[in-house]
Write a structure and sequence with these properties.
The complex is a heterodimer. By secondary structure, chain A is of the alpha/beta class. Chain A has 2 domains: 215 residues, Rossmann fold (3-Layer(aba) Sandwich), CATH 3.40.50; 60 residues, Alpha-Beta Plaits, CATH 3.30.70. Helices cover 34% and strands 25% of the residues of chain A. Chain A is built from 10 helices and 13 strands. In chain A, α2 packs across α3. Chain B has one domain. Classes of the chains: A alpha/beta, B mainly alpha. Chains A and B meet through α2 of A and α1 and α4 of B.
């Protein structure tokens, strides 16, 4: 049987209704530091789940607990129906973990490295070249790992997570070192994997990426989950304000303040920014006053929601500790 | 391909593609053979009446093989842990026995090639080593010795996290041990208390065994004692090495 990693259905025993990950009250403390402080959520099979948050929010610790690299101090962790801790050699081949971009067997070529990883997972040898092609490294197959560029190393690390066709993938900032073309190419690979029924747990600092790819995102701050929902619902729930950007040479601040429905007007560089709760009448008024040519409309993005949540969290933290 | 075969293959390629380390692994003991061979050329040890070369050749050979076993595995484990390669292996269903087993086979291969090359050079007229008829017994003794020193190196590799630390710790263990075990200087010419102390050092047993097999010093019982001593060190170091083993510095 030949298997295509992008189209084969999710293998595995059990019913599809069984969630991929179930966390209940998970805690992990390092001395006085509460790295993970009571996290509970469920990731469904086939879900593309984003884990967002500033550095030090506890994302890495939480991911490592799910991967079975760390033991939770308290709470329960079920990954594909079983506990990942202690090391469970039956569970491991069903998980794919993106490695650090330094974690390559020295002095091997890209293909030799990936073939070694495939053998460690007992994956079929044909998967090696297929996976290299999938991440766009077919031409670099014979290049020593030490001679790969940053982006190529990152793609090889991602290939190490995919080569054995796992059911559940953990990807940690997979696009961090990629140029825009490679980033978009990886998005396509990830969407194909999701289309084939894979579950993906994803961390990133690119909020546009989370918005474009993830079914749901959890925003972490100070070891806790501050928000958890689909990107669209998070954005809709956070703010209803719309911003209109009008070229400054066609509208003065004084004129702007007199327009209907403007809650705030400010000059930012060469544009006047109008904030409103009701963009319809305001747009009509702007058309009459300044014309619509060059006018841009901005609604809230996931980044706005993220910044609001993480800043509110750190502000409240400061006020309680001071 | 099994996990063990994959790791052995990756290790073999990494090793043979690092020409500098490869060259010096084999050249280092030979260098000592040349230096000591020139210093003690044609001389006999007063206490026993045997030529120096029959002490120095097996001694330097044992030390060279032991040194390569300790340094090789210690560097590899430290570097694999630092670069998260052990973490990668940890996330695959690979058993720890495949990781350590692959290093063991590589160390055996290196040690036996080192020994063959070294003996071939020592047999040259310039050095004048005369082989005893029971020289094949050196092979099982070298295997036991490499096992013990590989386990010692694995312990060093688990407690160090930089190449500098590996070099410092391994040198601190191996250089004094070489002198105290008679690798560079005949034990027969050392004070009584030093000879007694040397029994607690694994290299003493490897020296005795390899010397007995190659030059015919002592009887078969002495070889048995050497083999038994090395086996005890291999078991003790092996147990400690498995207990100390860490997949990651961060967990």
């Amino acid at each position: 049987m030949t298997k295509e990693p992008t189209v084969s259905p999710t293998p595995g025993p059990g019913d599809d209704a069984q969630p991929a990950v179930v966390l209940t009250g998970v805690r992990k403390h390092y001395g006085a530091t509460r790295a993970v402080d009571g996290v509970s959520f469920t990731i469904a099979r086939g879900e593309f789940f984003g884990l967002l948050g500033p550095n030090g929010a506890g994302k890495t610790t939480l991911i490592e607990i799910m991967e079975g690299l760390r033991e939770a101090d308290a709470g329960t962790v079920a990954v594909l129906g079983t506990s990942p801790w202690p090391r469970d050699r039956a569970l491991l081949p069903r998980l794919g973990v993106q490695t650090q971009s330094s974690a390559f067997f020295v002095r091997l070529t890209a293909r030799e490295h990936l073939a070694t990883v495939a053998a460690l997972y007992r994956a079929e040898p044909a998967a090696v070249d297929r996976t290299l092609a999938l991440v766009g490294l077919a031409e670099q197959a014979g290049t020593r790992v030490e001679d790969l560029s940053g982006g190529q190393r990152q793609r090889l690390a991602i290939a190490s997570a995919l080569v054995h066709d796992p059911e559940l993938l953990f990807l940690d900032e997979p696009t961090a070192a990629l140029d825009p073309q490679a980033r978009r190419a990886l998005w396509r690979v990830l969407r194909d994997l999701k289309g084939a029924g894979r579950t993906i747990v994803y961390t990133t600092h690119h909020l546009d990426e989370a918005e474009a790819l993830c079914d749901r995102v959890a925003i972490m701050a100070e070891g806790r989950v501050s928000a958890l929902d689909s990107p669209n619902r998070l954005i809709a729930g956070a703010t209803s304000a719309t911003r209109l950007l009008v070229p400054a040479e066609r509208l003065t601040l004084a004129q702007a303040s007199d327009l209907p429905g403007v809650s705030r007007a400010s000059l930012e560089g060469d544009v006047v920014v109008l904030e409103t709760e009701d963009p319809g009448p305001l747009l009509a008024a702007v058309e009459r006053t300044a014309g619509l040519h060059g006018v841009q409309t901005r609604t809230a993005t996931l980044e706005d929601v993220y910044l609001t949540i993480t800043e509110a969290r750190s502000t409240s933290e400061r006020s309680t500790t001071s | 391909m099994s996990a063990y075969a994959a790791l052995r293959g990756a290790g073999y390629r990494a090793y043979t593609r690092d020409r500098t380390t490869l060259f010096f692994t084999f050249a280092f003991p030979l260098l000592f053979l040349v230096v000591f061979g020139l210093i003690f050329s044609g001389q006999d040890v007063e206490e026993s009446g045997r030529p120096y070369i029959s002490y120095i050749a097996p001694g330097v050979l044992s030390w060279g093989v032991a040194n390569a076993a300790v340094f090789g595995v210690a560097f590899t484990l430290m570097q694999w842990r630092r670069d998260d390669i052990l973490r990668l292996i940890r996330m695959t269903p690979t058993p720890l026995s495949a990781v350590l087993g692959s290093r063991f086979v590589l160390a055996l291969g290196i040690g036996l090639v080192q020994a063959a090359l070294f003996v071939a050079v020592a047999l040259l007229p310039a050095f004048g080593l005369a082989l005893s008829g029971r020289w094949p017994l050196a092979v099982p003794l070298l295997v036991l010795g490499i096992t013990a020193f590989l386990a010692l190196g694995a312990i060093v590799g688990s407690f160090t996290s930089t190449p500098e630390a590996v070099a410092a710790v391994a040198n601190c263990l191996m250089v004094p041990m070489a002198f105290l075990s008679g690798s560079f200087y005949p034990l027969d010419a050392m004070p009584e208390w030093m000879r007694t102390l040397s029994w607690i050092l694994p290299l003493r047993h490897l020296n005795d065994g390899v010397s007995g097999a190659l030059t015919g010093s002592g009887d078969l019982g002495d070889l048995g004692v050497a083999a038994g001593g090395l086996a005890v060190f291999a078991v003790v170091f092996g147990v400690v090495a498995v207990r100390c083993f860490r997949w990651s510095d961060r967990v």
